[in-house]
Amino acid sequence: MDVYGLIGSPIEHSLSPPMHEAAYEALDLDARYVTLEPTDPVAAVNGADALGIAGLNVTIPYKQAVLEAVEPDAMAQRVGAVNTIDFSGARPTGHNTDVIGVQRAFAHHDVALSDQTAVLVGAGGAGRAVAVALRDAGARLRIHNRTESKAKALAADVDATWGGINDETLATACADADILVNATSVGMESDETPVPAAALHADLTVMDAVYRPLETRLLADATAVGADTIDGAWMLLFQGVAAFEHWTDHTAPVDAMNAALRSRLE
Ligand code: ATR
């Protein structure tokens, strides 16, 4: 039996176990996916290697810390964070499937990114993966963040423009944009939105990284003005799909993984 897992803290509400186990069941693979909450992430990666664990996902707050325990690939180095570790080689290798997860979520909805104008709200860990995903796919990008210095630093890294998050600057930025992505935690288990409804319009595709609730205030406001929406479960799904495909020789059973995820969200 192959054992996969997730390290992070807290991880008790993680949806990765049902998502990955649905894939094992759909493909009749002899595998399990467990959640682990170590205090020392580097020791945990070394220990997992010694134990013969097949693969690990890594979540907050350990995505940067595990870099010193793995051989990071080019994307993990670029993002400065690892969310997927593969133990099949001589040394554990570190990957970042958050970036491809964002790109595949847009592709799944037939939303082109190349030559599109995108606005990203948020410049933390999730924001960084979204920024790299959008820029690599050829979008023009403007990054807005509460702490403007973080927007500025991320914008310099990915060759984007930047600004703050007051209503006026967001409305100006969104006015001629095709894509809006929220990568802040605003809206998580609350009715708040990071972007005022007045800034939204029907020509936008709005993606939210928040998936609890699935329909955030931002996405409800976007639907109300006739914009297309992509909820946060799609990003979560496709980073998991890409991790699964790193670890196994199989094409991920996307529909089974999606159904498992969505049955646990509302
Ligand atoms: P993650 O890894 O999930 O991205 P993070 O790195 O802590 O988490 O980033 C959280 C993001 O949400 C940041 O962009 C943060 O803005 P700051 O950089 O100014 O802290 C943003 N955020 C969190 N709470 C916010 C709030 N109440 N209003 C606006 N932005 C908020």
Structure description:
The protein contains ten helices and twelve strands. The mean pLDDT is 97. It has helices at residues 16-26, 41-51, 74-79, 97-108, 125-136, 148-158, 167-175, 217-224, 232-247, 254-262; strands at residues 2-7, 31-36, 55-58, 71-72, 84-86, 93-95, 117-121, 140-144, 161-163, 179-182, 205-208, 228-230. With 266 residues, it is an alpha/beta fold. The strands form two sheets. A six-stranded mixed β-sheet has the order 2-1-3-5-6-4, with helices on both faces. The protein binds 2'-monophosphoadenosine-5'-diphosphate. Residues 60, 122-127, 145-147, 150, 165, 183-186, 194 line the site of 2'-monophosphoadenosine-5'-diphosphate.
Topology:
Layout: E1 2-7, H1 16-26, E2 31-36, H2 41-51, E3 55-58, E4 71-72, H3 74-79, E5 84-86, E6 93-95, H4 97-108, E7 117-121, H5 125-136, E8 140-144, H6 148-158, E9 161-163, H7 167-175, E10 179-182, E11 205-208, H8 217-224, E12 228-230, H9 232-247, H10 254-262
Parallel strand pairs: 1-2, 1-3, 4-6, 7-8, 7-10, 8-9, 10-11, 11-12
Antiparallel strand pairs: 3-5, 5-6
Helix pairs in contact: 1-9, 1-10, 4-5, 4-9, 9-10
The structure holds 2'-monophosphoadenosine-5'-diphosphate (ATR).
Could you list some keywords that capture this structure?
binds 2'-monophosphoadenosine-5'-diphosphate; globular; alpha/beta; 266 residues; 39% helix; six-stranded mixed β-sheet; six-stranded parallel β-sheet; single chain
